[in-house]
Amino acid sequence: MDPHLEHQLQALLDKQAIMELINAYCNAADRHDNEKFRSLYHDDAIDDHGSFFKGLAMDFIDTLPDIQATMEILHHNVTTVNIKLDGDKAEGEVYIIAFHKIRTDDGPIDLLIGGRYFDKYEKRNGVWKFSYRAVDADWANLHQPSIVNLDNPIVRGAHIGKPGREDPSYKIFDLLQWGQR
């Protein structure tokens, strides 16, 4: 095979693996699947959620059960993704729109955030994982009280997403299972 073509093919494979990593992160967040979260980061990776948390990603994941306890709905949507490869290292700027329905003492609130992830990835032992992830908020829209209405006749009878293993996807899928990338 032509060396230039082989290089281009490897770059496509690497970018696809990184896209699958990014998408797995969103799934793990939305399903509160912290076992899957652990598999996405290298053990020495850093997670930077600003004043919320900055440190080892594994320590951040340890705090997630408490944070997730009030999250009735999480829904991450990846939009624009820019990835630059350099051998077994890469950087990515990932645009995100994330919806949160959060239980509070005053009733549920909705938080819609548009932002970006500033990522660094490394391929170790042939596997791409996060070595660094920082969260950026470019805009936010807050509704207090929540305007989510899953009892509306338009959605009545539809599968309703839930955090954790009670999500309908785990009953429907055989290949996309809890804790798997």
TrEMBL record:
<dbReference type="Pfam" id="PF13577">
    <property type="entry name" value="SnoaL_4"/>
</dbReference>
<protein>
    <recommendedName>
        <fullName>SnoaL-like domain-containing protein</fullName>
    </recommendedName>
</protein>
<dbReference type="InterPro" id="IPR037401">
    <property type="entry name" value="SnoaL-like"/>
</dbReference>
<dbReference type="InterPro" id="IPR032710">
    <property type="entry name" value="NTF2-like_dom_sf"/>
</dbReference>
<feature type="domain" description="SnoaL-like">
    <location>
        <begin position="10"/>
        <end position="133"/>
    </location>
</feature>
